[in-house]
Amino acid sequence: MSKMSATRYRRFLKLCEEWPRDEGKRGRDLGTFLRQKVASAFREGENTQISDPEKCDQMYESLARINSNYYRQRFPRVRDTSFTGVTAEECKVLLSGNMQQMDEHKKGLWKTLMERFSKSPEDAPEKSQEK
Fold it and tell me: Where does the protein end up (predicted)?
């Protein structure tokens, strides 16, 4: 058994423990997906031999940066909305897949977004050409 394999395994286990679960996204939760991938990659636990240790370490570092909000802190947002004007909380509700829990305001927002993004450029009104 390699000491480095055991260290890698423990680091991934700790990351899995820290990674939050989103109960609103059953079947689409990134935390659950990560746990399944780690279990699959480390089938033999600490005794698992890693075929590409460098790639394994890169994957861990990338996931650890995401989990620690490294990029959010390094590149702070000026506003708490996206280009659509939708807030992070509204996006979370829309992406939860649990449309039944949305109130009428959110349903109106969803309809507005769907209409906005389903229009093709041909649907846009013609601009009058002035000479």
Answer: Mitochondrion matrix, Mitochondrion nucleoid
Ramachandran quadrant class, 79 (left: phi over 0; alpha: psi -120 to 50; beta: rest): beta
Q: Pseudo-torsion of CA 117, 119, 120, 125, nearest 10°?
A: -130
Say what the pTM is.
Answer: 0.61
For residues 97 and 88, is the Cβ–Cβ distance under 8 A? no
Percent helix, percent strand, percent coil in the chain, to nearest 5: 65, 0, 35
23-49 per-position pLDDT tens digit:
777 777 889 999 999 999 998 888 888
Structure tokens at 44: 């033999």
Q: Write the DSSP assignment of 73-123 as a string of letters.
A: HHS--SSSB-TTS-BHHHHHHHHTS-GGG--HHHHHHHHHHHHHHH--GGG
Tokens standing for 17?
């423990």
